[in-house]
């Protein structure tokens, strides 16, 4: 176990370096923060721009800037935002819980919905409940998330006026972003649960479980589901990464004050410190979730535990 | 007692089962009484397994429908018709009054729950026990099926147990609620013979202890002879014959039963013969059995010539477990210091059980696996020092036939293409027309027709597919064919015809065979010499007659006594069969003891006892 954790830690360090290096390098190709900051403020001389760059530390060579960023990483000091001068760590501390709340709740909602529906589809393979569930999931898959988000806003916020159109203020504001993310996740998860379930239901031990006289629910939810867990957990783990990617768009539409919105604004303003910090936090999150997935394998499957 | 004699426990009457529009079981009737064993015998597609699943009403879940008939069962709540009972009623009967053991012990237990948990589950469900009481009872049940350390086993997972142990756990689980009827569907087919013998003994003993009725479903006439009181023979979904076991074996009436019994290789049937013998084949011809072919003495081995293949002190090991820093901690000692020669026209059989290393030897010769040490000489040349061209020639002259003919043919290529492939690869014939002709000739040689060349593997039956694999092996004019359990997946009647084909080809082409098998009866019919493997070492090697008539090593004797013989009148002695086959996995540094061998008769070598 110790060896496994050390290996994972080294992997994490490597991933963070590669990801942040790529981001730091790429964003510097896209524009000058000094120009962005002075946009629209009339008479800006070349000297002003030089002074701004010096103040932001952008006159130093790229590698020095990057090493400074890495140094800051160890003390959780990401520097100050180019826009407004707030401590980056304060911005992250505010945005991270909002994003995590949204991501985990939509993931959990989708798991809770997709498991019974996926199992129902698998057990009624080829019959109408299966067809219906498959069609619905296909429809769900076909929605682009931003379109779905806009349609929800149009219906529930503008026409019916049931829910607030944007922002984070209480439980109501939380429903639409979570549903948007959840519907798309659920659509893929149902198909995954159905496929793994079909495979597991063919196993001999399922026949044995039925031959014992167990009820269908015990057979399905105890004997079969636990054996589906490995592929499902693997996929849910991977999905978490994709989820964080998709959240930028959804957060933007609902003006949700999370990491996605933060990153979006940072890209627009060429706010290097904020962007680098957000990307670092996101990659650490994904590494962390994958680690949890690996640990979960051992918990659900004794064959992996003893290896 | 008179009551149980008059009323059968289960009476199946005119039962027909349909899946979609195909009728898999047709107008089947039979009955079982308490304390009796009924064997339902048949080959693949006979409907025997569907019958057992129908009694359990598990066929429903697979889309089965009962078109006609009934199955009356004397349950504790009175007589009920199993075919019309609700699933709710059936759940009270399954596991409680009728229990079932399945074929594959390796996949019958749920891998993610402990043994104790899985047995306790049945007791808590049907007997209303608490978890603690159920676990206590589970421990008693595990001891009942002769599993040592029952208390410790409760907390173990299925993957930590061998196949034989898992099947005992299955039996313990099936008998947990003392069912009135036990259905055993090929319960020993996937097990080694010595383990099979142990399991059969346990089932028999527990049956008389608990007074249950047993329905034993099998394709193995040897097992039928050992286990059954009464026999039902099924063929293409119908019952074609039934009667007491002695009667069926002594006077089979239906032509199918006659052919089936004729095809079963019987251990000891070659007593007093120096050579393997090709016997006439009984085939069904318009519902009457007919003999095809004559008797041929298989005197094909040319011991005067130099050996085709020599194996000297071959050692093959695999690293398996590794420590944190990549150091190897455990190895499989698959093959340890094995030596033998194969002469032209000879069949050398490698026999042994799981973990004996017999398949690894075949794979090492074909260079699918690298040897750790030792030498393999082909035509006197060491394989390890061959250059590219010589290796290519080696691949042409040694051919392989595997157990599963379906898995070894490309499903997207016509069989003609598959057979022509080695001819093209080795550049034996270049002209397309000539290749076509050669493929046609090969197909005819193995008993198919040239029209078959354009078909795909799924259009053939298992036996035909194995013929295609043989044709493909012959395509490159090999000197040696390694047949790795090539007959094991086939029904006996097909097995017999492929066996004859092997011998015919040997006579015509002087082929040498390395015949890897666990089936002693088939080995006895087919081979000139036999090497018995145990934990990677040859414990005994000699002519077929020496091994089968005067086995000297205790393991050889064990192996032979474990084989079920298709003769109900033969007395059984299973006293020497105890314990499991040890594992060939060893810690690094813990080297196995290499047996020394003594020649006790010309060519008959036996490992010394340690």
UniProtKB/TrEMBL annotation, chain A:
Q: Which intervals hold domain ABC transmembrane type-1?
A: 96-293
Fetch the InterPro entries from UniProt. BPD_transp_1_N (IPR045621), MetI-like (IPR000515), MetI-like_sf (IPR035906)
Query: What is the membrane topology listed in the Swiss-Prot or TrEMBL record?
Result: Multi-pass membrane protein
Q: State its location(s).
A: Cell membrane
What are the GO cellular component annotations? plasma membrane
Q: Which key words are in the record?
A: Cell membrane, Membrane, Transmembrane, Transmembrane helix, Transport
Pfam families in the record: BPD_transp_1, BPD_transp_1_N
Which superkingdom does the taxonomy of this entry point to?
Bacteria
Per the UniProt entry, what are the Gene Ontology biological process annotations, in alphabetical order? transmembrane transport
Family membership: Belongs to the binding-protein-dependent transport system permease family.
What name is this protein filed under?
ABC transporter permease
Automatic annotation (TrEMBL), chain B:
Q: Which reaction does it catalyse?
A: glutathione(out) + ATP + H2O = glutathione(in) + ADP + phosphate + H(+)
Q: What UniProt keywords are attached to this protein's entry?
A: ATP-binding, Cell inner membrane, Cell membrane, Hydrolase, Membrane, Nucleotide-binding, Repeat, Translocase, Transport
For this UniProt entry, the molecular function terms from Gene Ontology, in alphabetical order, are: ATP binding; ATP hydrolysis activity
- Indicate yes or no for the key word Cell membrane: yes
Any one Pfam family here would be oligo_HPY
- Predominant location of this chain? membrane
InterPro entries (alphabetical):
AAA+_ATPase (IPR003593), ABC_transp_ATP-bind (IPR050319), ABC_transporter-like_ATP-bd (IPR003439), ABC_transporter-like_CS (IPR017871), Oligopep_ABC_C (IPR013563), P-loop_NTPase (IPR027417)
What is one term from the GO cellular component aspect held by the record?
Answer: plasma membrane
Q: What class of enzyme is it?
A: translocase
**Keyword Repeat recorded:** yes
Q: Which domain of life is it from?
A: Bacteria
| Biological process terms in GO annotation | peptide transport; transmembrane transport
Q: How does it sit in the membrane?
A: Peripheral membrane protein
User: What EC identifiers does the entry list?
Assistant: 7.4.2.10
Limits of the ABC transporter domain: 10-261, 309-560
Q: How does it assemble?
A: The complex is composed of two ATP-binding proteins (GsiA), two transmembrane proteins (GsiC and GsiD) and a solute-binding protein (GsiB).
Free-text function comment from the UniProt entry: Part of the ABC transporter complex GsiABCD involved in glutathione import. Responsible for energy coupling to the transport system.
Q: Which family does it belong to?
A: Belongs to the ABC transporter superfamily. Glutathione importer (TC 3.A.1.5.11) family.
Q: What is this protein called?
A: Glutathione import ATP-binding protein GsiA
């Amino acid at each position: 176990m110790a060896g496994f954790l050390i290996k994972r830690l080294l992997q994490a360090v490597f991933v963070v370096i590669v990801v942040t290096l790529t981001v730091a390098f790429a964003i510097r190709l896209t524009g000058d923060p000094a120009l962005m900051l002075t946009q629209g403020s009339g008479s800006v001389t070349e000297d002003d721009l030089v002074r701004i760059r010096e103040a932001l530390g952008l006159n130093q060579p790229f590698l020095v800037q990057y090493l400074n960023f890495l140094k800051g990483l160890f003390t959780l000091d990401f520097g100050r935002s180019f826009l407004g001068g707030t401590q980056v760590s304060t911005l992250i501390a505010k945005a991270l819980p909002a994003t995590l709340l949204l991501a985990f709740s939509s993931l959990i909602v989708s798991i809770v919905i997709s498991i019974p529906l996926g199992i129902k589809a698998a057990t009624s393979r080829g019959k109408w409940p299966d067809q219906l569930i498959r069609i619905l999931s296909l429809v769900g898959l076909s929605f682009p998330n931003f379109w779905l988000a806009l349609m929800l806003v149009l219906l529930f916020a503008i026409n019916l006026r049931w829910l607030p159109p944007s922002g984070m203020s209480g439980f109501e504001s939380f429903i639409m972003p979570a549903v948007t993310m959840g519907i798309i996740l659920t659509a893929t998860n149902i198909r995954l649960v159905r496929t793994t379930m079909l495979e597991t239901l063919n196993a001999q031990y399922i026949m044995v479980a039925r031959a014992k006289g167990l009820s269908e629910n015990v057979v399905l939810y105890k004997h079969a589901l636990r054996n589906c867990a490995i592929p499902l957990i693997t996929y849910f783990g991977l999905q978490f990464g994709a989820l964080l990617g998709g959240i930028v768009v959804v957060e933007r539409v609902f003006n949700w004050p999370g990491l996605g919105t933060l990153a979006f604004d940072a890209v627009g303003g060429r706010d290097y410190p904020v962007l680098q910090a957000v990307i670092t936090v996101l990659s650490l999150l994904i590494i962390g979730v994958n680690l949890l997935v690996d640990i979960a394998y051992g918990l659900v499957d004794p064959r992996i535990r003893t290896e | 007692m008179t009551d149980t004699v008059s009323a059968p426990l289960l009476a199946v009457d005119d039962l027909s089962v349909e899946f979609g529009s195909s009728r898999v079981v047709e107008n089947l009737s039979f009955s079982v009484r308490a304390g009796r064993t009924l064997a339902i015998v048949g080959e693949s597609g006979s409907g025997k397994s569907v019958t057992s699943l129908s009694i359990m009403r598990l066929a429903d879940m697979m889309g089965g429908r009962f078109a006609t008939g009934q199955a009356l069962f004397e349950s504790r709540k009175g007589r009920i018709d199993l075919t019309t009972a609700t699933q709710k009623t059936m759940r009270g009967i399954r596991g409680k009054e009728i229990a079932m053991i399945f074929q594959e012990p390796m996949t019958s237990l749920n891998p993610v729950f402990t043994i104790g948990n899985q047995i306790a589950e049945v007791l808590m469900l049907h007997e209303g026990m608490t978890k603690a009481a159920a676990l206590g009872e589970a421990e008693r049940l595990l001891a009942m099926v002769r599993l040592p350390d029952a208390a410790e086993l409760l907390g173990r997972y299925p993957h930590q147990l061998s196949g034989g142990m898992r099947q005992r756990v299955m039996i313990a689980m099936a008998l947990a609620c003392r069912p009135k009827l036990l259905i055993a569907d090929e319960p020993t087919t996937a097990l080694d013979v010595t383990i099979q013998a142990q399991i059969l003994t346990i089932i028999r003993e527990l049956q008389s202890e608990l007074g249950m009725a047993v329905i034993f479903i099998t394709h193995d006439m040897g097992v039928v002879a050992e286990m059954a009181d009464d026999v039902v023979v099924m063929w293409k979904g119908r019952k074609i014959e039934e009667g007491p076991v002695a009667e069926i074996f002594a006077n089979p009436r239906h032509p199918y039963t006659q052919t089936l019994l004729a095809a079963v290789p019987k251990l000891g049937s070659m007593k007093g013969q120096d050579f393997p013998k090709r016997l006439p084949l009984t085939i069904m011809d318009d519902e009457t059995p007919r003999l095809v072919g004559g008797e041929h003495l298989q005197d094909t081995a040319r011991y005067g010539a130099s050996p085709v293949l020599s194996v000297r002190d071959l050692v093959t090991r695999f690293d398996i477990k590794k420590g944190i820093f990549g150091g190897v901690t455990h190895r499989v000692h698959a093959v340890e210091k094995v030596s033998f020669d194969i002469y032209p026209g000879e069949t050398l059989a490698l026999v042994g059980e799981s973990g004996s290393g017999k398949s690894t030897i075949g794979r090492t010769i074909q260079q699918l696996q690298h040897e750790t040490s030792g030498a393999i000489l082909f035509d006197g040349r060491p394989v390890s020092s061959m250059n590219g061209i010589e290796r290519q020639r080696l691949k042409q002259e040694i051919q392989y036939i595997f157990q599963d003919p379906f898995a070894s043919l490309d499903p997207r290529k016509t069989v003609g293409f598959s057979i022509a492939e080695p001819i093209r690869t080795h550049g034996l014939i270049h002209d397309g027309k000539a290749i076509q002709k050669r493929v046609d000739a090969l197909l005819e040689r193995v008993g198919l027709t040239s029209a078959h060349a354009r078909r795909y593997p799924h259009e053939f039956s298992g036996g035909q597919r194995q013929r295609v694999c043989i044709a493909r092996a012959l395509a490159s004019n090999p000197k040696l064919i390694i047949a790795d359990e090539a007959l094991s997946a086939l029904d006996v009647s097909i097995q017999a015809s492929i066996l004859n084909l092997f011998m015919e080809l040997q006579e015509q082409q002087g082929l040498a065979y390395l015949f890897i098998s666990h089936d002693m009866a088939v080995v006895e019919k087919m081979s000139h010499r036999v090497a018995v493997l145990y934990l990677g070492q040859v414990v005994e090697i000699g002519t077929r007659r020496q091994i089968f008539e005067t086995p000297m090593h205790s393991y050889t004797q064990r192996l032979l006594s474990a084989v079920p013989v298709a003769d109900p009148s033969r007395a059984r002695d299973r006293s020497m069969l105890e314990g499991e086959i040890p594992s060939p996995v060893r810690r690094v540094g813990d080297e196995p003891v290499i047996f020394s061998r003594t020649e006790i008769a010309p060519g008959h070598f036996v490992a010394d006892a340690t």
